[in-house]
Amino acid sequence: MQRTAATPPANRGANCKISCYNGNSGFADDAAAANAHVGRYPQGEVFPMDYIKLIQQGESETVEFKKEFPSSASDIAKEVAAFANNKGGLLFIGVGDQGNIVGIEQPDKVIQRIVGVVRQCDPPLQPQIKIEYFESKSIVVVQVSKHNVPVAVDGKFYIRVGTSAVAATSRDLTKLLVRNLLDQINVLDILDEPFAGFSPENLAIASSSSNEGSGHREEDAEAERVKLYENFQGVFLVHRWRPSTLPGQKADIVISLVQHNQGPLTARQVASVDYFLGPKFPGSSYHKDNYEDDFALRVSAYAPMLCLAKVNLLSGEVITLYRYCDFPADL
């Protein structure tokens, strides 16, 4: 890889940028790189507007700020590995936690340290690294892509939860492995048989008469649907079943939580769940605090039933969810 010097030349404006490292090979000869900035700053280039918007929005699942290179280099490795194990992301070094651009000294040396750190990941990573300039302040930007196998640091795996890199549980690691496997195979081939003769209604051409007056109804329905997402904070109940092996029962059922996008479940803000299945089930309720498997409840039943779940958040708030747990009656 070829590096260019980090010091912005005096004869250019403060808002200019320069690419430094693409992760494909080693640094060029340091002596040659020392004068590489001459004539390398195109006139008029400015700090990317996309970066400005991201910084204004603050840290997120895919954006991390570091005011300076941390005292422990492994902190950078963990952040990068967590991005690689998630959707990828951008690490800005020289930006404070509140989005204030402070810049860093000697960005070239920071890049060299980052290169050494990411090569210690298992497997070694090759992010794109570059220096950007904002009002004469140097910012190192590390762009990490999603990796096709889980990435470890010192034998441990990390994932991105909200705005933090956290150690992955065994369940998290299983999800990573399954996700990466599904990315590499054609899932539609596996699921094709149950959809024989499938004709998607959403693509059907409706007559003009059937659409008369439907515009407002659709808008109202969509507003209500969005409101449900907000009320439930993206948390929903799901269930799976199989024919029961127990005498007198027809189905074994697993009821659990699922998170749409990001929310309390992915941010680990759910303390417990209380399930209510009705008087035919022993006990008045089932209390679950097993975060590792999404607060799953396992029961056997001889008939479908309505499940009510009280999701207790760490904040003290309670989200009430419902799920009709059905299965074929002729089991």
Report on the structure:
Helix content is 23%, strand content 27%. The strands form 4 sheets. The protein has a 5-stranded mixed sheet with strand order 1-4-5-3-2. Strands 12-11-14-15 form a 4-stranded antiparallel sheet, with no helix packed on it. A 3-stranded antiparallel sheet has the order 6-7-8, covered by helices on one side. A hairpin with a 4-residue loop joins strand 14 and strand 15. The protein is of the alpha+beta class and 331 residues long. It is elongated and about 70 Å long. Helix 3 packs across helix 4. The longest helix is centred in the C-terminal third of the chain and has 19 residues. It folds into 2 domains: 152 residues, Schlafen, AAA domain (Methyltransferase, Cobalt-precorrin-4 Transmethylase, Domain 2); 95 residues, Sandwich (Immunoglobulin-like), CATH 2.60.40. The chain contains 7 helices and 15 strands.
Give keywords.
331 residues; Methyltransferase, Cobalt-precorrin-4 Transmethylase, Domain 2; five-stranded mixed beta sheet; four-stranded antiparallel beta sheet; 7 helices; elongated; disordered N terminus
Separation, N- and C-terminal Cα atoms: 63 Å
SS field, number of helical segments: 7
Succession of helices and strands: EHHEHEHEEEEEHHHEEEEEEE
Share of helix, binned: 10-25%
**CATH superfamily annotation of the largest domain:** Schlafen, AAA domain
